[in-house]
């Protein structure tokens, strides 16, 4: 397990400006205080069909942060360099920033539509590491948000309990 007190921060952004304005997905995890907890923030803006900005924030445990650190370390993304990756373009960009102990890295590349885009790039091995790490982190974030809305309050029983009481993530 990694050192609970080491500095840690991870942020992912994917977005573009187009027909429906600035549309993006962004999330981050940031350790707070003594390292025993962290905040997770999520934002999704899509103006398609007049959707509005969705912002969520929640506290997560040190155990979850330890797992995210393990995923990042196992991916070996720290060893990669984005200099030969596709540059951002009209289709948008992706950014990944990681602070893990004394390491701090920041990547920027074009949006990746499929694994074909990865294999056709000038650095397919490095971009593949980025692609799979981002997929893992996005799956984790979407699972956390989905599960959070399904948590029931155990202290509410009987008629005062609504059909499906769910705790909601605090909007920011």
Automatic annotation (TrEMBL):
Cellular compartments per GO CC: exon-exon junction complex
Pfam family, one: Mago_nashi
InterPro entries on file: Mago_nashi (IPR004023), Mago_nashi_sf (IPR036605)
UniProt keyword list: Nucleus
Annotated compartments: Nucleus
Top-level taxon in the UniProt lineage: Eukaryota
GO biological process, any: RNA splicing
Family: Belongs to the mago nashi family.
Record protein name field: Mago nashi protein
């Amino acid at each position: 397990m990694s050192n609970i007190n080491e500095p840690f921060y991870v942020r992912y952004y994917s977005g573009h400006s187009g027909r429906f304005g600035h549309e993006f997905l962004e999330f981050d995890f940031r350790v707070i205080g003594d390292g025993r907890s962290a905040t997770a923030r999520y934002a999704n803006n899509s103006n398609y069909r007049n959707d509005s900005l969705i912002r969520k924030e929640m506290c997560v445990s040190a155990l979850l942060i330890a797992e995210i650190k393990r995923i990042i370390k196992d991916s070996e993304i720290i060893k990669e360099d984005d200099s030969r990756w596709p540059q951002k373009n009209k289709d948008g960009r992706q950014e990944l920033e990681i602070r893990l102990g004394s390491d701090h890295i920041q990547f920027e590349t074009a949006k990746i539509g499929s694994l074909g885009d990865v294999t056709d790039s000038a650095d397919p091995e490095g971009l593949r590491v980025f692609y799979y790490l981002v997929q893992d982190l996005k799956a984790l974030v979407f699972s956390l948000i989905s599960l959070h809305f399904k948590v029931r309050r155990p202290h509410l029983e009987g008629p005062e309990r609504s059909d499906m009481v769910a705790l909601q993530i605090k909007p920011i």
